[in-house]
Protein 1
Amino acid sequence: MEIIISETKQEMGKQAAQKGADLIRKVIAERGEANIIVATGASQFEMLSELVKENINWSVVTGFHLDEYIGIEETHPASFRKYLKERFVSLVPLKDFRYVNGNDAENECKRLGEIITNHPIDVAFVGIGENGHLAFNDPPADFETEEPYIVVNLDDDCRRQQLGEGWFPTFDDVPKQAISMSIHQIMKSKHIVCSVPDERKAVAVKNTIKSIISPAVPASVLQKHPSIWLFLDKNSASGL
C-alpha cells in the first residue's frame, strides 16, 4: 500500500485523480479499453472534480457503480445514481455506465453480477467510511461471499455519517439497507485508488492501516491488495 498525504483535500483529490487517470490511460494503451469502479459520497467530491478534467479516451471506458440505497428514487437528493450523473457521467463521454438500481434488490444483484463478471475491473476509485466500511460493507463485513453485488444492512454509525454529511433531513430518513459491491469483488480490481479526506475519518484510516485484517474493520482488507494507493489529507492522516 502506497500512502500519499497532502496538505489539503483539494490537493489530495487532484493527486488521486492524476494517479487514477494514469492507470486508466495505461490500461487503454495495453488493450484498447478499460473498466472502472466509481465511488460516491462527500469524500469523492475533490477527486471526481479533477478526474473529469483528465485527458482520457472516455469513449472506451465502462464504469460501474459501487453501491446504492434500497428504496429511494433516483431523484432523491441522497441517490448515488443522481450523484454520479451530475458529478461524473454527464461530464465525460463514457462508453457505458452501469448503475445500481436499489428498487429491485434481488434481481439487480443478479443482473449486475452477471455483467461485471464479464468486465474485469482495471481501476477502482473507492473511499473509506467513518466506521471503516468499504463501499457499504459495514462491520462485521462479509469477507467470504464471492457474489459481486449483495444486499447489506447499514449499521447506525454508517447511517449517522450519511445524516452528518447532509444527505438526509433526519436519522429515521436514512435507509437501513443498500445494495453494495462485495469486498471480494472490490479486491478483484487490478488497481485501487482510495481517497479519504477529513479528520472525522482519522480513526478509520489508522485502523485500516494499523489493525489486523478483520471483518470488524472492513477496509483493513486493503492491506492485502497488491496495487493500491491511499490518498489522505493532513486531517485524515492525523492519527498516523
Note: The chain is about 30% helix and 20% strand.
Protein 2
Amino acid sequence: MGDETRTEEEQAVEAPEQVDELAEATRQRDEYLDALQRSQAEFANYRKRVARDQASLVARAAERLVKELLPVLDDLERALEAANEHEEAKLEDGVRLVHRALADALAKEGLTEIEADGAFDPHVHEALLSQPADGADAGAVLQVLQKGYRLGDRVLRPARVIVAE
C-alpha cells in the first residue's frame, strides 16, 4: 500500500516516531563527536607531555656527563699551567692524570675498549690493511692503528687494524 491509501491519522502517528528516531540518532552522533574530540585533545596533550619529558631526560643525561667531565677540564688546565713552567715531569704526570680521569669518567658511562688481540672480527674491527706476516695465522690482527670502543652492547667505533694475510 502506498502513502495515498493510508489515512491521515496513520501518517500522523508515524511522523513523530521518525522524528524521535532522528533526534536520537542526532544526539548519539553529537555524543560520539564530543568523545572523539576529547580523545584527540587528550592524545595531543599526551604527545606534548612525552616530548617534554624526553627533552628533560636528554638534558639531565647531558648535564650528568658534563658534570663528570668538569674535573678532566680542571686537570687539563693544570697540565697547561705546568707546560708554561716547562716542568716536563709535571707535564707528563698531568697528562697521565687527565687521561686516567677521562677514561674513568667514560667507563662510568659504560664505555669499554674493543679487544683487538687474536682473530679479526668484522663486527668490531675494520681492516685497513692486510699484509703477510711470518708466524701469524691468516686473519689474525697484527697491529691496532686506532682503538675501537663499545658503549654497552653497541659498537661506537670499530677498532682499525692491520690483518695478517
Note: The first helix runs from residue 8 to 84.
Protein 3
Amino acid sequence: MTYKEIQELIRQVSKSDLAEVKVKDADSEVTIRTRHYSDGKGGAIVYPQMSIPAQPALSPQAPATSPAPKSEGEKPAETKSSGLKEIRSPMVGTFYRSSGPDKPPYVKPGDSVSAGSVVCIVEAMKLFNEIESEISGTIVKIMVEDASPVEYDQVLFLVE
C-alpha cells in the first residue's frame, strides 16, 4: 500500500463505527484499531494502533510525506468577520508545533508563510504528517495548543 492509501484508509476508519480493520497486500499488512476496539478483558479500550511490518517506523525527526492535496475547487476558508484566512487540519490526530521536543516551532505569530511551507505536524496513528500551508501571509494566531488533539477540518492557524 502507498502512504496516501494508508492515510485515506485511516480517515475512512476514523469516520466509521468500525472497531478494527485489517488490510493485506503483497508487500504489507495494515491493522487499524479504533477507540471502539475492546480487548475482551473487562471492556478495556485499546487506543488507535497501526502495524506495518514491511516498513520502518516513522519518528517526529523523520516526518512522512505531506498529506494528499485538496481538490482543485477547494480554497482555504476566510473567517467572515475579520477577513483572516484559515489553515485547517486535513486529518484527525495530535497537533505538534515542532518536529521534536527540543526543536523550535515551525511558525509563531508574526512569521510569514508561503504556499507549500510546513507549518506544523499532525500525528495520526503513529504517522507524523507535515502540514503545509496552502496560502501565503502572516501568522496572526495559533488556534491549537501544542500536543493537543485536533479534528478533521479544525482551524489550526489564522493568517493575514
Note: The chain has one helix and eleven strands.
